[in-house]
């Protein structure tokens, strides 16, 4: 059974060993085996729904035998971090340490971690940090569909911290050629939009569209362009058009303009939506070619209305998916290295995480914010 983390708020500044040692003594009076040293972890946490993030310290407990401990170097900020901090999905547990686009180095491994994952290896960690490895989905390689998978920032602490843990399988080694400072957003934003391209067999000859060109969307654009597709960007911000073309868009269409959407009726084999707001969904379904698919990864809370006949007569589909498996994540980072695909990033020191969150909330991020750990 998962051991509940004990937590303790730390003072405004952690001055070194004094406070940490005091916390260790009070939280863990029992002697520990030397292979699993007791540690506390410094982090940035929201103490309540919508609260600004504050310095926080928690006792890490024992490293599980199949876990790795990662020293966080960088962590991207995904829109899902905002949704969790605001408890928009009703599953937030406070104090909440968000952050699930981690890049860092492995600093400890449990005894069941394969020898190939060595101390010092640079890895990435995303939304999932563990899956059962025993259910049919895990055994089929669909670990991201495991119904008991652990989520990095749900009921446990994520990457806005100096260290974070995961099952070894969810710590993806970074290939040579990827800039570690920029790679973090690949491990949630990137894999979430790469996976459906693989799952649904998108072809290089396909005409495809991406709705919403933020953290996820600007990566989808690059993937689909390098995949060989003809790519349309559906954006609500015409001022982004030139940049979107430079990232791989062949055409840019206003995502909120029904008249413009009517002009592309029947065109697309695949449309990927990354928005979390209601749009004129009927126009997007009508924009699909026969056998076309509208796939949402954007966590829009309002229902998407679908008239059955707009699906039936042209054999169209509507679907959704969460991230991707560890194997598909490895394929994605290799694809990025081969095609020089990288997130377009803005950097903030982690100590300025509240400014960074505000920047994202205001819709100003171009296109993904990455925090650099500075504990
Ligand atoms: N399925 C999964 O497993 C998974 C994984 C990660 C994230 N997500 C979800 O995916 C969504 C996107 O995440 P993100 O990090 O990419 O967010 P983001 O960086 O904030 O980008 C979202 C984009 O949506 C568009 N948008 C926002 N408000 C809009 C409005 N009122 N009207 C029209 N377009 C609007 C904007 O694109 P334009 O400026 O181009 O219009 C914006 O850049 C979130 O809901 C997140 O929770 C899901
Ligand atoms: Zn995410
Ligand atoms: Zn499973």
Task: Please explain how this structure is put together.
- With 375 residues, the protein is α/β, with parallel strands linked by helices.
- It has helices spanning 17-27, 79-85, 136-139, 180-183, 189-199, 215-227, 241-247, 258-262, 281-286, 308-312, 326-339, 353-361; strands at residues 7-8, 40-46, 53-59, 67-77, 102-109, 122-125, 128-130, 150-151, 163-167, 172-173, 207-211, 230-235, 251-254, 268-273, 288-296, 317-320, 345-349, 368-372.
- The protein has 2 domains: 7-188 and 325-372, Alpha-Beta Complex (Quinone Oxidoreductase, Chain A, domain 1), CATH 3.90.180.10; 190-320, 3-Layer(aba) Sandwich (Rossmann fold).
- The chain is built from 12 helices and 18 strands.
- Strands 4, 5, 6, 9, 10, 17 and 18 form a 7-stranded mixed β-sheet that branches. The protein has a 6-stranded parallel β-sheet with strand order 13-12-11-14-15-16. Strands 1-3-2 form a 3-stranded antiparallel β-sheet.
- Helix 5 packs across helix 6 (215-227).
- The two termini are 31 Å apart.
- Residues 1-34 have low confidence and may be disordered.
- Bound molecules: NADP nicotinamide-adenine-dinucleotide phosphate and zinc ion (2 copies).
